[in-house]
Amino acid sequence: MSETLNCDAIVDGGLIERYVAGTLSEAEVEALESHYLTCTRCQNELRLAAAIRDVLPEVQEASVAAGVSPTAVTTRWFGRRAQVAAIAAAVAAVLAGVLLVEPSRIESLRHREAVPETEAAPTVEVPVGTVRAVEEFRWAAVPAADLYRVTLYDGASDVVWQVDARDTHVALPDTVRLEPGALYLWQLEARVGWDRWVSSELVRFRISEP
User: Fold this and answer.
1) Domain containing residue 91
2) Residue 119 maps to a domain
3) pTM score, two decimals?
4) pLDDT tens-digit profile of 66-93?
């Protein structure tokens, strides 16, 4: 695989869905991570793919109960917003109004994808890169922000920890144990208005091994 990727190549190769499913080679993972760390579009696709993966079993189970083929639900479910929405709507219609996927979860993701042009993306400070330990997450204040949300992911894009804060830093609780040498990513979201959020880039860090 070429060391340099672009968004079109990622979509055509289905790399994001394969990344979330854990089926990429090491070279493909490295190339994709190098790209999405600086690409807001692919960061949004990755978050959406992870969210859809989390609710997919509920949709499949409900589709079976409603007599809808699970294959139709799972076909190209990653990275295809229109198709996923259409499938969810169709199954919901079959169930005569039974809610399959919480609208707030999908709608929240959609709102956060678009960063308002008048608002600058948040700037994170620590942790970044290779660090000895992680005791807190710290970032620069965002004008007009009344709430911040920190989300910590592991190398497979699974959420390890998430917390809301009013200040510009938050301590990592003792209950969250990070493994030395493992890859972690974190992202800061700032609420700057009614249901308006701006997001930082995904920031990668590792704890140095003893």
Assistant:
1) 7-113
2) no
3) 0.48
4) 554 554 444 444 444 444 444 445 444 4
